[in-house]
Amino acid sequence: MQFSILLVVLLLLSAVGFRMGRGRALQVGGPKARALHSLPSYYGYYVALWCGIPAVFLIAIWLSCEPFILQGIVVGALPADAKSLPSAQLSLLMNEVRQLGSSGDYQHASGAIASTAAEQYRNLRNMSFGAMAVISLAMAILGCVLGVRYIRPDLRARNKVEGVVKIFLIASSTVAIFTTIGIVLSLLFESLRFFRMISPVDFLFGLDWSPQMAMRSDQVGSSGAFGAVPLFAGTLLISLIAMVVAVPIGLLSAIYMAEYAHPNFRSVAKPLLEVLAGIPTVVYGFFAVLTVAPFLRDAGAAVGFSIASESALATGIVMGIMIIPFISSLSDDVITAVPDSLRQGAYGLGATRSETIKQVVIPAALPGIIGGVLLAVSRAIGETMIVVMAAGLSAHLTANPFEAVTTVTVQIVTLLVGDQEFDSPKTLSAFALGLVLFLVTLVLNVVALNVVRKYREKYD
Amino acid sequence: MTEMVDQVRVSATAEKVNARLQRRYAVEKRFRFYGIASIVVALSFLAILLFSIISQGHTAFMQAEMRLSVTFDPSVIDPDGGRQKAVLSSADYTALVRNALLARFPEAEDRLARREMIALISQGADLELRKMVMGDPSLIGTTRDVWLPAAASVDQLRKGHMSRDADKGGQFTQRQLGWIDALESSGNLSSRFNKWLFTSGDSRQPELAGLWGAVVGSFYSLLVTVTLSFPLGVATAIYLEEFSTRNRWTDLIEVNINNLAAVPSIVFGLLGLEIFLNVFNLPRSAPLVGGLALTLVSLPTIIIASRVALKAVPPWIREAALGLGASRLQMVMHHVLPLAMPGILTGTIIGMARAVGESAPLLMIGMVAFIVDVPASPLDPSTALPVQIYLWAASPERAFVERTSAAIIVLLCFLAVMNATAIFLRKKFERRW
C-alpha cells in the first residue's frame, strides 16, 4: 500500500517534470519556439525521464538487495546458540522471522529468539522503506531540477528521448530470452541437486515409481523409488488415445471445411469448433470426471468388462476432444495454403474431388499436417489439469487403456502441492520431471515449427 | 466386321468406365459424409459438455432458505447493554438460532430431537445473524422474520439429489422429514437466489461457499498480468516488426517466442516457484506471483497477435510519414500503432482470456488452498476462479458437484464476454486496405 503511494508520487513528480520541461523549453525557445531543436513536448519528456528513471532504478536495486542485507543484519544479531544452528533450521527460523515481521503479530512466535528477531526485522524493514522513499524522491526532484537547467534550444531532446524508448523496446524483446534462460536454469539447478541423490540412469530407466520417502527406516513400502518409466508410459498412452480421437476427427473436419463446405456453413461451424479450444482445461477435467468416466464405466459394466473410473481411456478421449480444434485449425491453414493450380491440374485429368484431396492436396500439405500433429502431441504431453483431475495417482506400468495410469504432469502437481522440502528427493524429483517435460516438448516444437516453416517456404 | 468389334470393345470399355465411375462417385459421397460426420461428432462433444455442465449447475443458483422468527434477545447478545462492537461480535448467536427453531418446533424436547432439529439449518446461520446485528444494533430486543440458509442436505433433498429413504442414502430421520414438510407446506422453506455463491469466499459448508474470493483473486492476477504483458508484448512486437533488421539476434528472439508459446504452462509454474518464491522470496499463494506467472503464459500470444496487427498496416502509411519528416519512432507512435491498435487489443483480450482459464501454473505457486477471506490486495493469499473449480471438484459432498458446475458456468460467462468483446472490436475496427 505504502509502496503504491510511493510509485504514484513518483509518477506525479514526473508529470510535474514534464510540465516544467515544456514550459522551460517554450521560454528559451524564443518566438513561437522556433529556435528549439525538437518539439517542446520532447523537452518535457526529457525532464520527466530524468525525474523518473533514476528513482525507479534505485527502487529496483534497493528492493532486490534489501532481503539479503536485512537477513545478514538479523542473523548477525541472533544469539550465539541460534547462530550455530544447522543451516536448514536457521533458514526455517529466518522464514518464521520474516513472516512474523511482515504480519507484525508476535503472539504466535515459537520462542523469544524468534520474536525479538522479528521485531528487529520489522523495525529494520520500516527504516529501510523510509530511507528508500526519501532517497528516491530526492533523486527524482534532483533529476527534475537538473533536467530543467540543462534545457537549451540546441539540446537534441527528441533524439535522447527516442534513444531511451528504443532501449526500452530492445529490453522488452529480451524478456522472452530471459524467460527461457530462467526456465532452463531453475529446472537444471534443482534437477542437478536431485541427480546428486538419485542417479539419472535409475531415474530415466527405472521401472518403479513411489516417491514417498520413509519417515522411519523400518517403514514398509516407502522406499522412495524414482524410476520414471511408468510415468512416461502413462503419458504416452494417454497422449496416444488423445491423438487417435483428435487426428481423424480434426483432419476430416478441416478437409470438409476447406474443400467442401459452403462459406455460410464454414462461418458458423469454424467458430463453434474453436469454442472447444477456448474452454479452460479445468472444465474438461471436470467433464471427464463427471460425465465421461462414469459413462465408460457403466458401459463397460453393461458388457461385463471392468473399466477403472480413472481409466486412461476416459482421460485420453477428453484430451482428444480438447485437441480437435487445434488440429483442425492448423490443418485448415495448410490445406488452404496448397495452391489452386494443383487442384485444377487434378480436375483436368478427370479426378473427382475426393481423389484430388486424397492424392494431390493431402500429400502436398502433409509436412504441414505432420507439423501440426507434432505440436498437438506436445500439447497433449504437457496438458495438466485434465490428467490431474481424471487420471490416476499411482504408477502402473501397463498398456491397457482401461486401467488407471499416471502421467508426468500429475506427479509434478502431486509432488509440489502441499509441503515442499527442497532438500528431499521427493520434491526435487518434480523438477527433474519438469526438465524432461520441457526438453521433450522443446524438441517436438522445434521439429514441428521447422517442418511447418520449410513447407511454407515451398509454396510462398 | 472390324467396326462391330470396335463398337463392342468401346461399349465394354464404357461399361467398365461407367461401373468404375459409380464406385468412384460412391467413394466421393462417403468421403464427404466422413467430413460432415466428424464435424457433427466434434460439435456434439461440445453440446454434451455444455449440456452436462449446465444441467448439473443451474440448480446451484437457487438454494433452500428457511424463514424463522428470530428474537434478538438482549440478554444473549448484549447482557450489559453497552452495545460495544467486541461484545456484539463475540455473542452467542447460535443460541438465537436454536431458540428460534425451538419456538417453531416446541415438540423437540430431548437432546437427540434438538440435535436433529439444529441439523436442518446451516451451521453458518449464526454468522448471518451476527452480520445483521453488527450492521444495525437497533435490532436487539426485537423479533423479526429472517430468511436463513438451510443445511446443504436439506437443499439437496429438495432438489431431489438425495433420497428420502434412509436405505437409499437419505440422511434424514422420519421426524426431520416431518419438520421439513411442515416448513415447506407453511411456506417457510423455499428456494431463494443463492447470494452466497456471489458474495462470500470459500467455505467448508457448501451452502455458504462462494466464488467472490476466487473472482477477486483472479481479478488481481489479471491486473498484474495485463499491466506487465501488454506493454512488454507490444514493445517487443514493435521492436521486431519496425526497428530490427533480420539477424541472428532477432532470429534468436523469434525462436524463443515461438517456443514459449508452446511450452506447457505447468513449466511456467515451476519457473515461478523457483524464481519468484525461492529466489525472490515473494509471498506464497499471492495473486501478484500468479499474475507474474500468467504474464509469461500470455506474453507470446500477445506478441504474436501484435506482430500480425502491425504487419497488416500497409507500408505506404510508413513511407508517407517518413516522407513528411517524421522520425521512425514518430512514424510508429503516431501512425502505425494507432492503426494496429484494434488488432493488438483483440490479441490482448484473447491472451487474457487464456490467462483467466489457466490453472496449472497457479497450482505450482500455491494458489491452491482453502482460503475463506476475500483478498484485500494482490499480496494476500487467494485462489483464482479455475483453481476454485479444481478445489470444489475434489470435494466429496454432493452439494459441491452442482456448485462446481455453477462455478464453471460463471467462468465460461466471463470468457464468453471477453471473447465477444474481442470479436466485436475486430468486426468494428477491422480495416481492409
From TrEMBL, chain A:
InterPro entries: MetI-like (IPR000515), MetI-like_sf (IPR035906), Phosphate_PstC (IPR011864), PstC_N (IPR022182). Belongs to the binding-protein-dependent transport system permease family. CysTW subfamily. It is found in: Cell inner membrane; Cell membrane. It holds the Pfam family DUF3708. PANTHER family: PHOSPHATE TRANSPORT SYSTEM PERMEASE, PHOSPHATE TRANSPORT SYSTEM PERMEASE PROTEIN. Residues 232-448 form the ABC transmembrane type-1 domain. This is Phosphate transport system permease protein. The keyword Nucleotide-binding does not apply. It comes from Telmatospirillum siberiense. One of its GO terms (cellular component) is plasma membrane. Part of the binding-protein-dependent transport system for phosphate; probably responsible for the translocation of the substrate across the membrane. The chain crosses the membrane at residues 41-63, 129-151, 163-189, 225-255, 275-296, 303-327, 360-381, 393-418, 430-452. It is a multi-pass membrane protein. Keywords: Cell inner membrane, Cell membrane, Membrane, Phosphate transport, Transmembrane, Transmembrane helix, Transport. GO terms for molecular function: phosphate transmembrane transporter activity. GO terms for biological process: phosphate ion transport.
